[in-house]
Amino acid sequence: MEINYKNIKVIGFDADDTLWVNETYFRDAELEFAKLLGAYETANKIDQELFKKEMDNLELYGYGVKGFVLSMVEMALEISNYNVSNKTLEAILNIGKDMINKPVELLDGVEEVLKTLSKNYRLILATKGDLLDQERKLEKSGLIDYFHHIEVLSDKKEANYSKLLNHLDINPSEFLMIGNSLKSDVLPLVNIKAHAIHVPFHTTWAHEEVSEKESNGKAYKTVSGLRGILKFLN
Amino acid sequence: MEINYKNIKVIGFDADDTLWVNETYFRDAELEFAKLLGAYETANKIDQELFKKEMDNLELYGYGVKGFVLSMVEMALEISNYNVSNKTLEAILNIGKDMINKPVELLDGVEEVLKTLSKNYRLILATKGDLLDQERKLEKSGLIDYFHHIEVLSDKKEANYSKLLNHLDINPSEFLMIGNSLKSDVLPLVNIKAHAIHVPFHTTWAHEEVSEKESNGKAYKTVSGLRGILKFLN
């Protein structure tokens, strides 16, 4: 299906795993967490339980490192049957602090793409992470001047994007979202008649995976790397 | 000094302790926390140390309940010399969950003021809390239809407000901020030549207190309750 990008006024970029590495750090943190609790359960079981705990707490804590750390602490208490040592818990807090302090590792082509597109479009960063974390990453990334501003969404569902478009005072057909998550950055946009381009990242959090059925027959493009966008827009 | 409100296009409202009770819940949480750790230190010492810990972690965690809970956990480990029980730590996590689940208690006059002002101005909620928390509170409050959108600021300093005005595409003289914190909702605005009205709340977090000197000779109004705003604007 041909997609008409002529009306685009604003382009939203997802941040984590679209502009810079993020999920990899969560995977590393989970490995470290499983190692710390190795006396109580297998790594596989800990991984599963942590995911369940995160899902249980998602409505309460939302996305981002702080909620992740709170879920790890809670799970460490439970899976150890309330026997985990204070030093292990401190190590868990430090996993979170290290994550927050990680350097920003840009993905391939990011600077070139932003530089090109920022000449003709208003670019915004649209993220469901923690605002402070994302501002810090944007600062470290050196990309701040390409973006008009950051939009933080508490979730990335259709209603959140509709609110965003209302806030930007534009029509759905004037908005293009670019991101690595089909579930969060692509399908909700297509469903509200906005545009989306999917740029997959090699690792996807289980929560972000969608079934084939959900993504079937939807009008969006997939490119293998961010530079691929420039084939459609410039 | 007379202030000219004629040019105002957008009015920003602080949320916590301006529209609804918040600080009181933090004070209650601190009391509960001190009680849980009563075996290790006096309530007064615990209070002081917790504030210090929050300030140490502020750059890392930012504002909001999740960072507050992470600071409580860290402090419990340290102040107990790594002897605090797993059950006590669980109780600390639950203090946080209870805070997030608290009902929204509107302050006096809020609905009337928003209803009146929303007819002639674009109203936004400008908060440095956690977006998810604030969206949840706004939902519970029944006030959601009065606001064009929520703006989350990672901090409320001059630079953050300048970014906000840029994002709203308005001049400083077209913006009025209303809030309970001199430090966060009033002085930075006055300093960038925007407008501000101060509506004090009975409890102020130590971090939000400012000295007389800082607030001397700045052009802003103070009203004793939210309804007082309607004397100047309607």
Proportion of residues in extended strands of chain A: 5-15%
Distance between the termini of chain A: 20 Å
The strand order across the widest sheet of chain A is 3-2-1-4-5-6
In CATH's first tier, which class of the largest domain in chain A applies?
Answer: Alpha Beta
| CATH homolog superfamily of the largest domain in chain A | HAD superfamily/HAD-like
Low-confidence stretches of chain A: none
Discrete helix count of chain A: 9
Oligomer type = homodimer
Q: SSE order of chain A in H/E notation?
A: EHHHHHEHEHEHEHE
The whole-number mean of residue pLDDT values of chain A reads: 91
Radius of gyration of chain A in whole Å, from Cα?
A: 19 Å
| CATH architectural label of the largest domain in chain A | 3-Layer(aba) Sandwich
Which chains have the largest interface? Answer: A-B, 36 and 36 residues
Secondary structure tally: strands of chain A: 6
Structural class of chain A: alpha/beta
The total tally of domains of chain A equals 2
Give the biggest sheet of chain A: 6 strands, parallel
At CATH level 3, the topology of the largest domain in chain A is: Rossmann fold
Helix content of chain A: 40-55%
